[in-house]
Design a protein that fits this description.
This protein is of the alpha+beta class. It has nine helices and twelve strands. Helix 7 packs antiparallel against helix 9. The N and C termini lie far apart (63 Å).
Length: 330
């Protein structure tokens, strides 16, 4: 028996395929230890591999790091395709699986290379006078644990020491924008927020997404630190020039200043008082003064304000002990 031009040909005389029914063959093959422990490792565990090549065209937002897939091409050396439809859909499946692994692969591995970028949900408020004891009990025993149960993981709590706005700031982290938007529109969150508002005033909330140029990797719990944050909007028509300035001038200068960490650059998606937040972290509050007196920092900040930013503001925040690895945090 042979296959020629997609047709089964019987070389032995006397074999009548249409009248003899379906030809069935039995066999077995057991490959060696070829697969790994990663997702999809058990697929195609055979020493007989075909050759393939893929080309993917993407568009990357340089500010947010978001990837849009524009087109995908796949070439596979599979030999003669007896069932063309099966082959084509198998190739489509491999493209989809590879794309998923590339964009949403193993979190542990991607975190090491900075592939996952947290989305932040921030809240700020002042406590109603003479309600401090009730407030503290509610925050520790109810509010923070329930927020974590809803997927909003507390990663920072701050007092506003110098600047504008309410005095208390809470910061929560999630992996995806869709998660936070779904949570804050849920009835459970709304009911919890209404309980909070009975003991606080001047409430504000905002959703922040990271700029791809500044911060990559999961946002970790901020313990025993001070923050110097910049808040501003961009002038019209300077978005591309601003991105080049951040990557080629601002970040290189900040990297050379040893006592400060550029923890995050954030686009304000919802709420807030500005379009952009630049987040700097210090172990010692005295270093904030050193930064403000640093000539290189003053030079790039002056360029930022003159050429790119409007409505520029800043403030100094001190981390609270209330959010430092709470007892229910895992």
């Amino acid at each position: 028996m042979d296959i020629k031009n997609g047709i089964v040909v019987f070389e032995k005389e006397g074999v009548d395929f249409p009248t003899r029914g379906v030809i069935i063959g039995n066999g077995a093959y057991k490959p060696g230890e070829l697969g790994g422990k990663y997702k999809g490792a058990t697929v195609g565990t055979s020493p007989a591999y075909g050759c393939s090549a893929q080309v993917v065209e993407v568009t990357v937002d340089e500010e947010t790091g978001k990837v849009a897939v524009d087109a995908m091409k796949d070439a596979h050396d599979c030999g003669f395709a007896i069932n063309r439809t099966n082959v084509e859909w198998q190739m489509r499946g491999s493209l989809s699986m590879g794309l998923g692994e590339a964009l949403h692969g193993d979190e542990g591995e991607r975190e090491e290379i900075g592939g996952i970028m947290s989305v932040l949900f921030t809240q700020s408020w002042d406590v109603i006078q003479d309600r401090d004891h009730e407030y503290t009990k509610f925050i520790m025993d109810a509010y923070l644990p329930e927020m974590a149960d809803m997927g909003l993981i507390p990663v920072g709590g701050y007092y506003m020491e110098v600047g504008f706005g309410p005095r208390i700031i809470a910061v929560f982290s999630v992996n995806e924008m869709e998660e936070v938007l779904k949570t804050i529109t849920d009835k459970k969150f709304k009911d919890l927020l209404q309980q909070l508002k009975t003991i606080v005033f001047n409430y504000r909330g905002s959703v922040l997404e990271p700029t791809g140029a500044v911060k990559r990797g999961k946002y970790t719990i901020q313990k025993g630190v001070w923050k110097f944050n910049q808040y501003y909007d961009l002038k019209p028509g300077v978005k591309k020039a601003y991105a080049d300035f951040v990557i080629n001038e601002h970040l290189p200068v900040m990297d050379k200043i040893s006592f400060v960490e550029v923890t995050g650059g954030w686009n304000v998606v919802l709420g807030g008082v500005s379009e952009i937040i630049a987040e700097f972290t210090f172990k010692d509050p005295m270093d904030i003064g050193r930064l403000l007196a640093n000539e290189e920092y003053r030079r790039i900040t002056l360029k930022l304000r003159n050429e790119f930013a409007v409505n520029y503001m800043n403030r100094i925040l001190r981390s609270t002990e209330r959010f430092d690895e709470p007892r229910w945090f895992k």
